[in-house]
Amino acid sequence: xxxxxxxxxxxxxxxxxxxxxxxxxxxxxxxxxxxxxxxxxxxxxxxxxxxxxxxxxxxxxxxxxxxxxxxxxxxxxxxxxxxxxxxxxxxxxxxxxxxxxxxxxxxxxxxxxxxxxxxxxxxxxxxxxxxxxxxxxxxxxxxxxxxxxxxxxxxxxxxxxxxxxxxxxxxxxxxxxxxxxxxxxxxxxxxxxxxxxxxxxxxxxxxxxxxxxxxxxxxxxxxxxxxxxxxxxxxxxxxxxxxxxxxxxxxxxxxxxxxxxxxxxxxxxxxxxxxxxxxxxxxxxxxxxxxxxxxxxxxxxxxxxxxxxxxxxxxxxxxxxxxxxxxxxxxxxxxxxxxxxxxxxxxxxxxxxxxxxxxxxxxxxxxxxxxxxxxxxxxxxxxxxxxxxxxxxxxxxxxxxxxxxxxxxxxxxxxxxxxxxxxxxxxxxxxxxxxxxxxxxxxxxxxxxxxxxxxxxxxxxxxxxxxxxxxxxxxxxxxxxxxxxxxxxxxxxxxxxxxxxxxxxxxxxxxxxxxxxxxxxxxxxxxxxxxxxxxxxxxxxxxxxxxxxxxxxxxxxxxxxxxxxxxxxxxxxxxxxxxx
Length: 580
Hints:
Layout lengths: L21 H12 L1 E4 L20 E3 L5 E7 L9 E4 L12 E5 L2 E4 L14 E3 L6 E2 L13 E3 L4 E5 L12 E3 L4 E5 L12 E3 L4 E3 L14 E3 L6 E2 L13 E3 L4 E2 L15 E3 L6 E2 L13 E3 L4 E2 L16 E3 L12 H4 L5 E3 L6 E2 L11 E3 L4 E4 L13 E3 L4 E2 L14 E3 L6 E3 L14 E3 L4 E3 L13 E3 L6 E2 L13 E3 L4 E2 L15 E3 L6 E2 L13 E3 L4 E5 L19 E3 L16
Parallel strand pairs: 3-5, 4-6, 5-7, 7-9, 8-10, 9-11, 10-12, 11-13, 12-14, 13-15, 15-17, 16-18, 17-19, 19-21, 20-22, 21-23, 23-24, 24-26, 25-27, 26-28, 27-29, 28-30, 30-32, 31-33, 32-34, 34-36, 35-37, 36-38, 38-40, 39-41, 41-42
Antiparallel strand pairs: 1-4, 2-3
């Protein structure tokens, strides 16, 4: 999770400052010279002798004409904006610099210059979302006034230098999304003013340090997606200002202590994908501000705490999926409140679908349970519902009776006993918001309906059913489709040539059907294809001779009538096939 920090620029004067010093101008031009390509167009304004006149983008100066700010930021999601090159050591000559921000440039590679240790006035150093490599220089620990240090979203490796423990004024430390290794340095215990601490998405090992309990001002801790092990230190639950705590995707063990109830400011708690055991402590009911609780994929066991209607009053999202819980029924304290997300997959819930409050739910995941009966009319009034996941249950109902709200984007009903025809779900009234339909491994029959324009489907999985008839040519209207699985049905006819118009398709499975004719060469137009399976049909003719079709394993084409060409045996006489 990326913590947003305020960019506090140093005081600049509104009247014209002195011309910028020659040394600072030379240092800036040295930085510019190492950037080989700049699609952000930032440097087009770096002309003329005066870098302090206000025209040089990202540059600000103090009244004496010394550069005190260099701030160049671009949005990460815009792939067209980047700088390509390296960071010049000349940045270390900007001796009056208080703010150095170069972020979102994506293709600035190479090391962090050692010379940055000369910038002893620096208060903010932000080098996020570039392509920086190598170790973190130990000299960064010699910047006594530093309050913000963010090196997140690079390719940094090695251990964190203990010298960073010298940065006693540090308020924000973010090294997330790198490949840093080793334990969290014990020297960090001196960083008692930290308010935000993010080491997520690295390779840190060892235990969660006891000294975290001394960071009394801390509001945000994210150590998720590492290799941390051992028990949680009880001291951590002294942090009465902490609002966000994420330790998910580690190898943490033991139980959650009752002291978790001391975290009175907590908004979000995520401990998912660990090895925690034991019951969930009842003290969580005292967390008045908690709105998101994710304890999924651990070994938590019964009993679930009895929480009153006034307990956890702010709760909006709960995920207890895939633990060792045997709930039987969904607890009343979950059913009766206005939640937006309920995830109770693999919680051994039995019987009929629970009657949640319909007005607030946007996401329901009750997959991998023992739900039975019909759900056809449950969702009529759930106007906010966007995601519905009920796979791997024993639900039995007719698809034609299923009424879905207009705004739904994901419907996953695979591996149940659903019957009826697809035409009730896919027709000219199908919502343009719908992106995922998975009804595979059911008893669905009928044919594949025609597809109208304007649909946003990205995944369509109807495999392992009793669907007959052809694949309609109007499949080409599913222009956003990335994954199509119609395998293990009774589909006949040819593979439509129009399938080649689905340029975003990455996964195609038409195996174990009764398809005839050729594999159309139009599929060569799909450059994003990563996986295809044409096995066990009645296909004949030359396999499209281009990547990736001619380098897929031979098993992709096995058990057909007379396919030939790489990766199978050459075609006899190699006639010019129709449609090529």
